[in-house]
Design goal:
The structure holds 2 protein chains of 2 kinds. By secondary structure, chain A is mainly beta. Chain A is built from no helices and 12 strands. Chain A is globular, with a radius of gyration of 13 Å. Chain B is built from no helices and 11 strands. In chain B, strands 2, 4, 5, 6, 9, 10 and 11 form a 7-stranded mixed β-sheet that branches. Chain B has a 4-stranded antiparallel β-sheet with strand order 1-3-8-7, with no helix packed on it. By secondary structure, chain B is mostly beta strands. Classes of the chains: A mainly beta, B mainly beta. At the A-B interface, strand 6, strand 10 and strand 11 of A face strand 5 and strand 10 of B.
Chain lengths: 113, 115
Amino acid sequence: AQSVSQHNHHVILSEAASLELGCNYSYGGTVNLFWYVQYPGQHLQLLLKYFSGDPLVKGIKGFEAEFIKSKFSFNLRKPSVQWSDTAEYFCAVKNGNTGKLIFGQGTTLQVKP
Amino acid sequence: KAGVTQTPRYLIKTRGQQVTLSCSPISGHRSVSWYQQTPGQGLQFLFEYFSETQRNKGNFPGRFSGRQFSNSRSEMNVSTLELGDSALYLCASSLGSLAGNNEQFFGPGTRLTVL
């Protein structure tokens, strides 16, 4: 069965530190890839998405992610985090044939000022 | 443009009861998907409706059902509630079916507590 794994469940960083959140999936067919963010008290918002083309995808608020097909990975990065990046981050993979969207367990990021 | 709206925002029910949750998608969006979010299981896909037809279904028992109306509004029903159904139920809408390259926009969710 298709699955998505986020390696880090809870990450604590100081402001200006660099961020990398891991995401791996287990489906060999066509996939669409997403990172969503859920700020405290707010609803899920799309950070970035990959459908096709350039595997390095840039999203909102300075986030980017790289799709590495051979590693089944779609890691999220940000060079310098801010306190306002404190949130829960979800990686999601959509089966390109069925459209079914599978989410990872989420990573809670806490940024200390 | 108004976002995805869900009603009610909070709901408390007792075991054995049934519940209906409502979702109004963004204007023009024809696909509505439902998700269950719990601390233990995370976000799990329930089903997708597109043009009043169920297009996709997750691994949930038949107690969970849904429907979509001609104006794209959707309802989700859970019958014979169990304690484990306590969760945040999220609705997401997109212009086209999930099978296409369509971005989903999420609503704020309905927090269901089963006592």
